[in-house]
Design brief:
Mean pLDDT: 85
Strand order of the largest sheet: 2-1-5-4-3-6-7
Structural class: alpha/beta
CATH architecture of the largest domain: 3-Layer(aba) Sandwich
Radius of gyration: 23 Å
Oligomer: single chain
CATH topology of the largest domain: Glutaredoxin
Strand content: 5-15%
Order of helices and strands: HHHHHHHHEEEHEHEHEEH
Number of helices: 12
Amino acid sequence: MKRIKPLVLLISLSMAIIPVWGLFLLNPDTSSQFTVFTAYLITFLILNYAIQRIQPSSLVIKSLILAGPIFYLLASIVVIQDIPALLTFPIVWIFVFSLIIFWMIYAKMLFRFMVTISFASLYAFAIYPKTEFAKTQTFDFERIESELSTNHTLSDFSFLNSQMDSVVLTQLNKPILIETWNETCGPCIQSIRDLQEILAKDTSFHHVYLYQYRGKKHLDANTIFNYEEIKSSEKILIDIDNKLFETLQLNSYPYFLVYDREGRLRSYHSGYNRKKKGEVLKKLNGLIQSATLIL
């Protein structure tokens, strides 16, 4: 019985790390540099408690504290399957941090704490803001035309529709809002849930959801066109070979691309934060109205 209690406690503490990482690192509504920093501190406290207080002192048994982090890391790899994105993904970095703290099991607690502060500060305030994940958490309302290429029209691209036909968007009778998405993008799904019905009520523009591939593995076409979060399959298009994504050099999801009736890119914004839902809608309506006035 005495041997079982430490094992149960270790596994419990290990599993406790999972919701901490999910809430502080991956929640699209709350994640920020400060929540990321907090996640490192909480992880340190859990690991330090397990290292210092739990008996027996066997290193093999204490390594069970990494069970939860390992599970979360593997799940992240399976979902993302994109090496460049994984290199800066929050879960990967905090897992590396967990390994470092565990390997320092015999170091003094103060030294481990200083390492924690240094590592957490480096990632939270220097690396995290530049990651693809962080960029999709905020909605930048400043229109910066120079960031995306405008040397193209929609007629340059072919898209796959729900009838499995290749289509080109030409001779539009009104502006079109193209919302990019991918099933692994949390803000994309949140945007679809929040804005879909509201945008559908405005008939002054077309609105489509453009699926873009991420990594080597992705949903098959049938699954994409029957994606449960999007109510109308007719509004779904697939960016064939990710040509639009690459031509515009997009680096995150979702993008809201506003094209006029001639198929020219007029304005855009990237990312979505549901806390700014009203502001998002107001801004998008303004951009669409501006495109409508252009002859």
